[in-house]
Design brief:
28% of the residues lie in helices and 34% in strands. The chain is built from seven helices and ten strands. Helix 4 crosses helix 5. The chain starts with 9 loop residues before the first helix and ends with a strand. This is L-serine ammonia-lyase.
Length: 226
């Protein structure tokens, strides 16, 4: 039986340039946390990090704790400050709690699972990510702005939340104009608010992401998970 590999570029195969020791447990953990930051869109003041299965057993020895802390501070995988990130989080006054869920199965069915709850300024988001190898991650659950979404996993994803039901079409048109193919969509309504979730087949370049971000304003939230 053939297996689909969710790689968008050669870097997903050979692994990222990174501060070690592990692409799955260090680089993957940084990327999961950076993706949660993209939902919060401001510096987190409080973070609860739950580890499941392999991460729950090995996070201390493989640098996962400081990787999560580094992601909270928006450090990338190559930042030389990564090993000092726990200390730097404390200096920044961020409340970071690690929880080992050793007796529980991953809520998203993967051995390398991190469940993050980030809060700041009265707003809270949740993201559950899996580190699937070589520094590649998948987002399999997120909660933001009153919506609960279970994506298929592979990044990138573009999400909008607004009170404009037609905004989905505007965002879809922009993605089409940028030459970005959509593999999966989710559209939900709750209490007069509309969420449009697009999963892309293509690598999302910095330039194209910046174009999408220009659609963000006071009435339309845009989240780019990549």
């Amino acid at each position: 039986m053939s297996k689909t590999l969710n790689y968008k570029s050669c870097f997903d195969v050979i692994g990222p340039a990174m501060v070690g020791p592990s692409s799955s447990h260090t680089a993957g953990a940084i990327k999961i946390t950076l993706t949660a930051n993209a939902l919060l869109q401001t510096q987190a003041e409080k973070v609860i990090c739950r580890y499941y299965e392999s991460f729950a057993e090995t996070h201390q020895g493989h640098g996962t704790d400081y990787a999560v802390a580094a992601g909270i501070l928006n450090f990338n995988t190559q930042d030389t400050r990564v090993p000092r990130a726990i200390e730097l989080v404390k200096e920044a006054g961020i409340d970071l709690t690690y929880v080992e869920c050793k007796k529980e199965k991953s809520p998203v069915g993967h051995e390398n699972t991190i469940d993050l709850i980030l809060s700041a300024g009265g707003r809270t988001v949740r993201l559950i990510g899996a580190s699937v190898g070589g520094g590649t991650i998948e987002v399999r659950h997120y909660e933001a702005d009153g919506f609960v979404v279970n994506p298929t996993g592979p990044l990138p994803m573009v999400v909008s939340v607004s009170q404009d039901a037609s905004y989905k079409e505007r965002l879809q048109k922009e993605l089409d104009q940028l030459g970005l193919s959509v593999s999966h969509t989710i559209f939900e309504e709750k209490d007069g608010w509309y969420l449009a979730h697009f999963e892309l087949e293509d690598f999302l370049s910095k330039d194209k992401a910046q174009v999408i971000e220009t659609l963000r304003d006071e009435k339309h939230a845009i989240y780019i998970l990549k």
